[in-house]
Amino acid sequence: MKKALLIGAAAGLAIALLTLVGASTQKASADAGPHVASTGATPDKCAACHRIHTGQTDKLLISGPTEKDFCYTCHGSTGAGSDLAVQSGKWYGNGSGPPYGNPKSTFGALRGGGFDTALIKTTDTSQDVIGTLTTAATTQSWHTVDGTTAGTLWGNGDPNSGAGPSYTLSCGSCHDPHGNGQYRILRPIPVGVVASAANVTDQADPKHYGVSNYLMMGADVSLSQISTWCATCHTRYLASSTAYSGDAIFSYRHISNGSSNRACITCHATHGSNAAMTGSYSAAVPWPGGGSGTTDNNNSRLLKMDNRGICIKCHWDK
What pTM, to 2 d.p., does this model score? Predict the structure, then answer.
Protein backbone atom coordinates (compact mmCIF):
# COMPACT_ATOMS: atom_id res chain seq x y z
CA MET A 1 0.00 0.00 0.00
CA LYS A 2 1.28 3.46 0.77
CA LYS A 3 4.90 4.00 1.47
CA ALA A 4 6.82 5.03 4.57
CA LEU A 5 6.58 8.50 6.03
CA LEU A 6 10.29 9.05 5.91
CA ILE A 7 10.60 11.46 8.80
CA GLY A 8 6.99 11.95 9.89
CA ALA A 9 5.33 15.33 9.49
CA ALA A 10 4.69 16.83 12.90
CA ALA A 11 4.80 13.46 14.49
CA GLY A 12 6.10 13.20 18.00
CA LEU A 13 9.01 10.92 17.33
CA ALA A 14 8.93 7.68 19.26
CA ILE A 15 6.71 7.48 22.34
CA ALA A 16 6.53 3.79 23.08
CA LEU A 17 9.61 1.68 23.01
CA LEU A 18 11.99 0.88 20.19
CA THR A 19 15.58 0.89 21.30
CA LEU A 20 18.61 -1.27 21.77
CA VAL A 21 17.43 -4.07 23.99
CA GLY A 22 18.55 -7.17 25.81
CA ALA A 23 18.76 -10.84 25.10
CA SER A 24 15.49 -12.64 24.48
CA THR A 25 15.47 -14.37 27.85
CA GLN A 26 15.41 -11.12 29.81
CA LYS A 27 12.66 -8.68 30.54
CA ALA A 28 13.32 -5.60 28.45
CA SER A 29 11.27 -2.48 28.96
CA ALA A 30 11.91 1.22 29.04
CA ASP A 31 12.26 1.09 32.79
CA ALA A 32 13.77 -2.30 33.56
CA GLY A 33 16.12 -4.97 32.28
CA PRO A 34 19.14 -3.65 30.36
CA HIS A 35 17.60 -0.20 29.91
CA VAL A 36 17.99 0.90 33.53
CA ALA A 37 20.35 3.80 34.17
CA SER A 38 22.67 2.42 36.85
CA THR A 39 26.03 2.86 38.48
CA GLY A 40 28.52 0.48 39.99
CA ALA A 41 31.79 -1.25 39.30
CA THR A 42 30.38 -4.56 38.07
CA PRO A 43 27.42 -3.95 35.74
CA ASP A 44 25.73 -7.06 34.37
CA LYS A 45 23.48 -5.47 31.75
CA CYS A 46 26.30 -4.84 29.25
CA ALA A 47 26.29 -8.53 28.36
CA ALA A 48 22.60 -8.42 27.45
CA CYS A 49 23.33 -6.47 24.29
CA HIS A 50 27.06 -6.31 23.55
CA ARG A 51 30.00 -8.57 22.72
CA ILE A 52 33.46 -7.08 22.89
CA HIS A 53 35.18 -9.13 20.19
CA THR A 54 32.31 -10.81 18.34
CA GLY A 55 29.89 -7.94 17.81
CA GLN A 56 27.67 -8.14 14.74
CA THR A 57 27.24 -4.38 14.21
CA ASP A 58 29.48 -1.35 14.56
CA LYS A 59 28.00 -0.82 18.03
CA LEU A 60 29.21 -4.32 19.01
CA LEU A 61 25.64 -5.59 19.34
CA ILE A 62 25.21 -9.34 19.66
CA SER A 63 23.08 -9.56 16.50
CA GLY A 64 22.24 -7.53 13.43
CA PRO A 65 22.73 -6.73 10.68
CA THR A 66 21.16 -3.38 11.66
CA GLU A 67 20.27 -1.71 14.92
CA LYS A 68 16.59 -2.09 14.08
CA ASP A 69 17.02 -5.82 13.51
CA PHE A 70 18.66 -6.13 16.90
CA CYS A 71 15.87 -4.15 18.57
CA TYR A 72 13.34 -6.49 16.97
CA THR A 73 14.87 -9.49 18.72
CA CYS A 74 12.90 -8.25 21.73
CA HIS A 75 10.50 -5.70 20.27
CA GLY A 76 9.65 -7.47 17.04
CA SER A 77 6.46 -9.34 16.26
CA THR A 78 7.97 -12.62 17.49
CA GLY A 79 10.44 -11.22 20.02
CA ALA A 80 10.07 -12.82 23.43
CA GLY A 81 12.18 -10.34 25.39
CA SER A 82 9.57 -7.63 25.87
CA ASP A 83 5.84 -7.09 26.17
CA LEU A 84 6.18 -4.17 23.75
CA ALA A 85 6.05 -5.34 20.14
CA VAL A 86 6.59 -2.08 18.27
CA GLN A 87 6.93 -3.90 14.97
CA SER A 88 3.31 -5.07 15.13
CA GLY A 89 1.92 -2.30 17.37
CA LYS A 90 0.88 -4.76 20.09
CA TRP A 91 1.27 -4.73 23.86
CA TYR A 92 1.38 -8.12 25.55
CA GLY A 93 0.83 -6.55 28.95
CA ASN A 94 -1.33 -9.27 30.39
CA GLY A 95 1.55 -11.64 30.93
CA SER A 96 2.44 -12.27 34.57
CA GLY A 97 6.14 -12.93 34.15
CA PRO A 98 8.88 -14.57 32.09
CA PRO A 99 8.97 -15.45 29.31
CA TYR A 100 7.78 -11.94 28.55
CA GLY A 101 5.73 -11.25 25.48
CA ASN A 102 3.58 -14.34 26.02
CA PRO A 103 0.96 -15.53 25.50
CA LYS A 104 1.01 -14.14 21.98
CA SER A 105 -2.73 -14.70 21.68
CA THR A 106 -3.45 -12.06 24.34
CA PHE A 107 -2.60 -8.49 23.46
CA GLY A 108 -3.72 -4.88 23.46
CA ALA A 109 -2.88 -1.84 21.36
CA LEU A 110 0.49 -0.15 21.79
CA ARG A 111 0.28 3.61 22.37
CA GLY A 112 2.63 4.57 19.56
CA GLY A 113 1.14 2.30 16.91
CA GLY A 114 3.50 0.01 15.03
CA PHE A 115 6.01 -0.03 12.21
CA ASP A 116 4.59 -2.92 10.18
CA THR A 117 1.04 -3.16 11.54
CA ALA A 118 -1.08 -1.22 14.02
CA LEU A 119 -4.34 -1.60 15.93
CA ILE A 120 -5.81 1.88 15.50
CA LYS A 121 -9.53 1.96 14.68
CA THR A 122 -9.11 4.51 11.91
CA THR A 123 -12.84 4.61 11.04
CA ASP A 124 -14.19 5.07 14.58
CA THR A 125 -17.47 7.02 14.46
CA SER A 126 -17.52 7.93 18.16
CA GLN A 127 -17.17 11.61 18.97
CA ASP A 128 -14.43 11.52 21.59
CA VAL A 129 -12.86 8.14 20.91
CA ILE A 130 -10.43 6.53 18.53
CA GLY A 131 -10.69 2.94 19.61
CA THR A 132 -8.66 -0.15 18.88
CA LEU A 133 -8.89 -3.11 16.52
CA THR A 134 -8.77 -6.76 17.41
CA THR A 135 -6.91 -7.63 14.21
CA ALA A 136 -3.82 -5.66 13.23
CA ALA A 137 -3.90 -3.71 9.97
CA THR A 138 -0.96 -2.85 7.72
CA THR A 139 0.62 0.52 8.42
CA GLN A 140 0.33 3.16 5.72
CA SER A 141 2.92 5.56 7.11
CA TRP A 142 5.67 5.19 9.65
CA HIS A 143 8.90 6.72 10.85
CA THR A 144 11.66 5.05 8.88
CA VAL A 145 14.17 3.75 11.44
CA ASP A 146 16.41 1.50 9.37
CA GLY A 147 19.41 3.76 9.91
CA THR A 148 20.16 3.98 6.20
CA THR A 149 17.19 5.67 4.50
CA ALA A 150 17.56 9.44 4.44
CA GLY A 151 14.44 11.56 4.29
CA THR A 152 13.26 15.06 5.07
CA LEU A 153 13.27 16.14 8.69
CA TRP A 154 10.07 18.09 8.24
CA GLY A 155 9.99 21.58 9.72
CA ASN A 156 13.47 21.42 11.19
CA GLY A 157 15.58 24.55 11.01
CA ASP A 158 15.31 28.30 11.01
CA PRO A 159 12.28 30.09 9.51
CA ASN A 160 12.33 30.16 5.71
CA SER A 161 15.04 27.50 5.51
CA GLY A 162 12.99 25.16 3.34
CA ALA A 163 10.96 22.07 4.17
CA GLY A 164 13.71 20.60 6.33
CA PRO A 165 17.16 19.02 6.05
CA SER A 166 17.95 15.43 5.12
CA TYR A 167 18.09 13.08 8.09
CA THR A 168 18.62 9.37 8.72
CA LEU A 169 16.71 7.96 11.69
CA SER A 170 17.33 4.85 13.79
CA CYS A 171 15.79 3.50 16.98
CA GLY A 172 18.62 4.88 19.09
CA SER A 173 18.19 8.34 17.60
CA CYS A 174 15.22 8.90 19.88
CA HIS A 175 15.68 6.39 22.73
CA ASP A 176 18.60 5.93 25.09
CA PRO A 177 19.17 2.16 25.30
CA HIS A 178 21.22 2.46 28.48
CA GLY A 179 18.43 4.18 30.39
CA ASN A 180 18.11 7.78 31.52
CA GLY A 181 15.05 8.03 33.76
CA GLN A 182 13.05 9.87 31.13
CA TYR A 183 9.63 8.91 29.79
CA ARG A 184 10.11 5.93 27.47
CA ILE A 185 13.86 6.54 27.84
CA LEU A 186 13.57 9.36 25.30
CA ARG A 187 16.79 11.23 24.75
CA PRO A 188 16.42 14.89 25.84
CA ILE A 189 18.10 15.75 22.54
CA PRO A 190 17.72 13.21 19.70
CA VAL A 191 20.96 12.12 18.06
CA GLY A 192 22.04 14.31 15.18
CA VAL A 193 19.94 17.40 15.84
CA VAL A 194 20.86 20.74 17.37
CA ALA A 195 18.33 21.69 20.04
CA SER A 196 17.85 22.60 23.66
CA ALA A 197 17.25 19.64 25.94
CA ALA A 198 13.58 18.67 26.29
CA ASN A 199 13.03 16.47 29.33
CA VAL A 200 9.87 14.39 29.59
CA THR A 201 8.95 13.30 33.11
CA ASP A 202 8.63 9.55 33.52
CA GLN A 203 5.36 8.16 34.83
CA ALA A 204 5.01 6.44 38.17
CA ASP A 205 4.84 2.67 38.41
CA PRO A 206 3.08 0.69 37.16
CA LYS A 207 3.84 1.80 33.62
CA HIS A 208 1.08 1.85 31.02
CA TYR A 209 2.16 1.05 27.48
CA GLY A 210 -1.22 0.07 26.09
CA VAL A 211 -4.12 2.31 25.11
CA SER A 212 -7.86 1.92 24.61
CA ASN A 213 -8.55 5.43 23.25
CA TYR A 214 -6.00 6.81 20.80
CA LEU A 215 -7.50 10.30 21.03
CA MET A 216 -6.76 10.86 24.73
CA MET A 217 -3.04 10.35 25.23
CA GLY A 218 -2.29 12.54 28.23
CA ALA A 219 -3.13 10.13 31.04
CA ASP A 220 0.48 9.28 31.86
CA VAL A 221 2.58 11.96 30.16
CA SER A 222 2.58 15.74 29.99
CA LEU A 223 1.26 16.67 26.55
CA SER A 224 3.12 19.97 26.81
CA GLN A 225 6.41 18.21 27.52
CA ILE A 226 6.00 15.66 24.77
CA SER A 227 5.13 18.29 22.18
CA THR A 228 8.21 20.25 23.19
CA TRP A 229 10.21 17.07 22.78
CA CYS A 230 8.78 16.44 19.31
CA ALA A 231 9.82 19.99 18.42
CA THR A 232 13.48 19.23 19.08
CA CYS A 233 13.32 17.78 15.56
CA HIS A 234 10.17 19.32 14.05
CA THR A 235 11.03 22.80 15.29
CA ARG A 236 8.64 24.83 13.15
CA TYR A 237 5.60 22.63 13.82
CA LEU A 238 5.16 23.57 17.48
CA ALA A 239 2.59 26.36 17.87
CA SER A 240 0.72 27.98 20.75
CA SER A 241 -1.62 29.88 18.42
CA THR A 242 -2.61 30.00 14.77
CA ALA A 243 -0.99 33.40 14.23
CA TYR A 244 1.22 33.95 11.19
CA SER A 245 4.64 32.47 11.88
CA GLY A 246 6.65 34.37 9.29
CA ASP A 247 7.71 31.15 7.55
CA ALA A 248 6.86 30.79 3.87
CA ILE A 249 5.97 27.08 4.15
CA PHE A 250 4.78 26.62 7.73
CA SER A 251 2.92 29.92 7.76
CA TYR A 252 -0.14 29.15 9.89
CA ARG A 253 -0.05 26.11 12.14
CA HIS A 254 -2.56 24.23 14.26
CA ILE A 255 -2.06 24.69 18.02
CA SER A 256 0.09 21.78 19.17
CA ASN A 257 1.59 22.84 22.50
CA GLY A 258 -0.48 20.43 24.56
CA SER A 259 -3.26 22.78 25.62
CA SER A 260 -6.81 21.35 25.59
CA ASN A 261 -5.55 17.97 24.32
CA ARG A 262 -4.01 19.65 21.26
CA ALA A 263 -0.64 17.94 21.07
CA CYS A 264 1.47 16.17 18.48
CA ILE A 265 0.53 12.72 19.77
CA THR A 266 -3.18 13.54 19.85
CA CYS A 267 -3.33 13.38 16.06
CA HIS A 268 -0.24 11.38 15.10
CA ALA A 269 0.91 7.86 15.97
CA THR A 270 4.59 8.05 16.71
CA HIS A 271 5.80 4.73 15.33
CA GLY A 272 3.30 4.07 12.54
CA SER A 273 -0.37 4.31 11.63
CA ASN A 274 -2.69 2.07 9.65
CA ALA A 275 -4.81 5.05 8.54
CA ALA A 276 -5.29 5.37 4.77
CA MET A 277 -5.80 8.49 2.66
CA THR A 278 -7.94 7.29 -0.22
CA GLY A 279 -10.40 10.18 -0.56
CA SER A 280 -10.10 12.40 -3.61
CA TYR A 281 -9.02 15.36 -1.48
CA SER A 282 -6.93 13.57 1.12
CA ALA A 283 -5.08 11.56 -1.51
CA ALA A 284 -3.83 14.72 -3.20
CA VAL A 285 -2.25 16.56 -0.27
CA PRO A 286 1.31 17.48 -1.33
CA TRP A 287 4.33 17.33 0.94
CA PRO A 288 5.23 20.67 2.60
CA GLY A 289 7.31 22.74 0.25
CA GLY A 290 8.00 19.73 -1.97
CA GLY A 291 10.43 18.29 0.57
CA SER A 292 12.80 15.62 -0.68
CA GLY A 293 12.53 11.91 -0.04
CA THR A 294 9.16 11.01 -1.53
CA THR A 295 6.65 11.82 -4.25
CA ASP A 296 3.88 9.85 -2.57
CA ASN A 297 1.12 12.34 -1.71
CA ASN A 298 -1.38 9.63 -0.77
CA ASN A 299 0.19 9.11 2.63
CA SER A 300 -1.38 9.30 6.07
CA ARG A 301 1.44 11.28 7.69
CA LEU A 302 1.05 9.16 10.83
CA LEU A 303 -2.48 10.50 11.38
CA LYS A 304 -4.81 8.21 13.33
CA MET A 305 -7.98 8.42 11.18
CA ASP A 306 -8.66 7.65 7.53
CA ASN A 307 -8.64 10.62 5.19
CA ARG A 308 -8.69 13.71 7.42
CA GLY A 309 -11.14 12.20 9.89
CA ILE A 310 -8.84 13.24 12.73
CA CYS A 311 -10.16 16.80 12.25
CA ILE A 312 -13.74 15.73 13.00
CA LYS A 313 -12.73 14.26 16.35
CA CYS A 314 -12.45 17.80 17.68
CA HIS A 315 -14.45 19.81 15.15
CA TRP A 316 -17.47 17.57 15.45
CA ASP A 317 -20.01 20.24 14.53
CA LYS A 318 -18.34 21.38 11.31
Answer: 0.88
